């Protein structure tokens, strides 16, 4: 059986998925947005194709793909991959789509699961839900992701860079997921296909920004910065950053564990940050 995975979007999560798939014996190809990445990924054995979301894309790149995953976010003009019309009718055995838990909207700190109605408020989440529904209609497996962190993109890195802030917005929590656990979830779903199924890929412990930054400081042995009240910091934040604090929810992951048999390598931010700190 041919095991060829094509990934639209070899970015932070896409590349982690690609590397895990290759370690498990898959041939992997995918898209990149600039030629400078091509040589490095070729050295890893990944076949790359230029696609920046606006240029044309040759569907022939998918000719021998058995599995196709899209990690690219949509924009105001819609999903760039769907606009190419390169996936429909290809006869691939499995389709996957990385979405966001933002499609649930604000739940005032309450828990959501895959049966919770999708009522997004943020424009980017509204766009994501529209794309998600098209992919689901094509029988793609949908992975809803909260805040993604991992090596090079974590509270450890922000503390080291001196940019970490402990923001206090009473009652505000965020769900998170380590990039390695995203990859494991996708590979598990590829081995247990379930057309159109939705999975929340989140860890077990939603937590506030201030808790996570404090723990990162403890791991690094540096002073914990003071709490900054939300009302004080909000006017200085970007519109994108403020939008993350506009919603508050906790994300359940039981379906991921029970149906796909996934055991999280980093079940909370503590294990994830400790591993990043130990490796740095």
Q: Care to give the gist of this entry?
A:
The protein contains 11 helices and 13 strands. With 280 residues, the chain is of the alpha/beta class. The model has no long low-confidence stretch (mean pLDDT 94).
Report on the architecture of this protein.
- The chain is α/β, with parallel strands linked by helices and 280 residues long.
- It is built from eleven helices and 13 strands.
- It has helices at 12-23, 38-43, 80-84, 123-137, 155-161, 179-191, 209-220, 230-233, 239-245, 254-260, 269-279; strands at residues 4-8, 27-32, 47-50, 67-70, 94-100, 111-112, 141-145, 147-149, 166-168, 176-178, 198-200, 227-229, 250-251.
- A seven-stranded parallel β-sheet has the order 3-2-1-4-5-7-11, sandwiched between helices. Strands 6-13 form a two-stranded parallel ribbon.
- Strand 4 (67-70), helix 3 (80-84) and strand 5 form a beta-alpha-beta unit.
- Helix 5 (155-161) packs across helix 7 (209-220).
- Specify the overall morphology: globular
Report the biggest beta sheet as strand number plus sense, adding barrel if it closes.
Answer: 7 strands, parallel
Give me the side-by-side strand order of the main sheet. Answer: 3-2-1-4-5-7-11
Cα separation of the termini: 40 Å
The SSE order reads: EHEHEEHEEHEEHEEHEHEHHEHH
> Would you report the number of β strands?
13
Q: Determine the strand fraction and express it as a percent band.
A: 15-25%
Radius of gyration: 19 Å
Number of H/I helices: 11
The stretches of 5 or more residues where confidence is low (pLDDT under 50) are: none
Q: What is the SS-derived class?
A: alpha/beta
Helix percentage: 25-40%
Overall pLDDT, averaged? 94
């Amino acid at each position: 059986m041919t095991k060829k995975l094509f990934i639209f979007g070899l970015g932070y999560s896409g590349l982690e998925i690609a590397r895990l798939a290759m370690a498990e014996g898959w041939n992997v190809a995918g898209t990149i947005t600039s030629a400078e990445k091509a040589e490095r990924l070729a050295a890893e054995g990944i076949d790359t194709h230029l696609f920046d979301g606006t240029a044309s894309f040759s569907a022939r790149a998918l000719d021998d793909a058995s599995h196709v995953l899209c990690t690219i976010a949509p924009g105001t003009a819609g999903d760039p991959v769907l606009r190419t019309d390169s996936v429909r009718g290809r006869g691939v055995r499995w389709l996957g789509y990385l979405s966001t838990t933002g499609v649930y909207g604000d739940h005032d700190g309450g828990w959501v699961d895959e049966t919770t109605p999708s009522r997004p408020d943020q424009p980017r989440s509204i766009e994501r839900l529209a794309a998600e529904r098209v992919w689901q209609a094509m029988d793609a497996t949908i992975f809803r992701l909260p805040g993604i962190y991992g090596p090079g993109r974590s509270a450890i890195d922000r503390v080291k860079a001196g940019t970490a802030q402990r923001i206090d917005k009473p009652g505000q929590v965020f769900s998170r997921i380590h990039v390695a656990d995203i990859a494991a979830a996708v590979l598990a779903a590829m081995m247990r296909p379930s057309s159109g199924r939705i999975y929340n890929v989140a860890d077990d412990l939603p937590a506030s920004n201030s808790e996570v930054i404090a723990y990162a400081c403890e791991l690094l042995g540096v002073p914990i910065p003071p709490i900054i009240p939300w009302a004080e910091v909000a006017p200085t934040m970007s519109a994108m950053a403020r939008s993350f604090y506009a919603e508050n929810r906790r994300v359940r992951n039981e379906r991921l564990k029970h149906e796909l048999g996934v055991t999280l390598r980093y079940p909370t931010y503590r294990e994830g940050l400790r591993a990043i700190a130990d490796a740095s």
